Amino acid sequence: MDWFRRQENKAPSRPPAADAVRRRMVFHGQVQGVGFRWQTANIARQLGLTGWVRNCDDGTVEMEVQGSRTDLDALLAALRRLRYARVDRVEVTDISTAPEREFRVTY
Questions:
Q1: Residue 55 annotated to the active site
Q2: Active-site annotation holds for 37
Q3: Catalytic residue, candidates 42, 54, 55, 104
Q4: Residue 65 bridge partners (DSSP)
Q5: pTM metric for this prediction
């Protein structure tokens, strides 16, 4: 398994699709200690999105995510319906796209 992960990590980043957008999102509410980052990563991967998600010291969760507008909207809708998390507010900012190959949870 370790060999596979090492090989997987050597895969080159792919450039963003022509219609791709990248957004920075900051989630406010009960979003830490409830599996929010892991659920976010699972949904993002299912949608074929790239980027990252992490907890912030102020109790929010920050994410940069990239893909089609339709898929980003689907991700946001799914996150608002999570069972144990409660999203009260989301700050959304469009930012420049970046070449990358996966969606990951960072610390």
A1: yes
A2: yes
A3: 55
A4: 23, 51
A5: 0.83
